[in-house]
Amino acid sequence: MENSDNVMAQIGRGQELAIAGDAEGARHLFAEVWGALEASPEGTRDPLHIVTLAHYMADVQTDPAEELRWDLRALEAADALTDDRAQRHDASLQVAAFYPSLHLNVAAAHLALGHVPEARFHLDRATEESHHLAEDGYGNTIRGAIARLHHRIDEIAPVIPLGNSERRAEHR
User: Fold this and answer.
1) Cα 135 from Cα 75, distance rounded (Å)
2) How far apart are CA 51 and CA 32, in angstroms?
3) Which of 55, 143, 157, 170 has the highest CB neighbour count under 10 A?
4) Rounded Cα distance, 66 and 71, in Å
5) Is residue 69 packed enough to be buried (19+ CB in 10 Å), middle (13-18) or exposed (0-12)?
6) Using the 8-state DSSP alphabet, how is residue 81 labeled?
């Protein structure tokens, strides 16, 4: 059973704008919500609001550095979020299942900025956490995106196995 939450409703309206192709409108609405969250006293900020807003705000950025900044905010907020709080919004939510997508997004943003080692690090975290995803359409989508990003990173900067001096010599 979902709980009424005006902040989540505003975030949802912003996401609807983004899905409809109005990234600028979504950014504007998300910025208003973020301003209200920042104005609230430190101890009263809801991690669910922060992780959700930052996650969606990252998606509507045009600057990869700003996208990364928002993605990192979402990831940090998830660390403060509990299953109990998430389930007061939607009984099916488990915070552990947020991490594959959050790390995937951080990895993609790092890759867009040319930060291959950081991208690989977060993509490995996404892979490690992917067992928390349900065997459903969403879980399959995230797992597929993780696999595709692994492939892209490996094309850019292949991992050379330790001890394989012949292969290392090829890349010098």
Assistant:
1) 23
2) 16
3) 55
4) 9
5) middle
6) -
What secondary structure letter does DSSP report for 5? -
Per-position DSSP letters for 11-63, written without gaps between them: HHHHHHHHHTT-HHHHHHHHHHHHHHHHHS-GGG--HHHHHHHHHHHHHT-SS
Question: What is the tens place of the pLDDT at every residue in 127-146?
Answer: 999 999 999 999 999 999 99
CA-closest candidate to residue 14, choices 41, 46, 49: 49
Please tell me the distance from the alpha carbon of residue 134 to that of residue 104, in angstroms, as a whole number: 16
Q: DSSP letter at 171?
A: T
CA-to-CA distance for 140 and 67, rounded, in angstroms? 24
Residue spans of the chain under pLDDT 50: 1-3, 164-172
In sequence order, the 6+-apart residues with CB closer than 8 A to the CB of 130 are 100, 139, 142, 143, 146
Please work out, in degrees rounded to the nearest 5, the angle formed at the alpha carbon of residue 112 by the alpha carbons of 124 and 169.
65
Q: What pTM was computed for the model?
A: 0.86
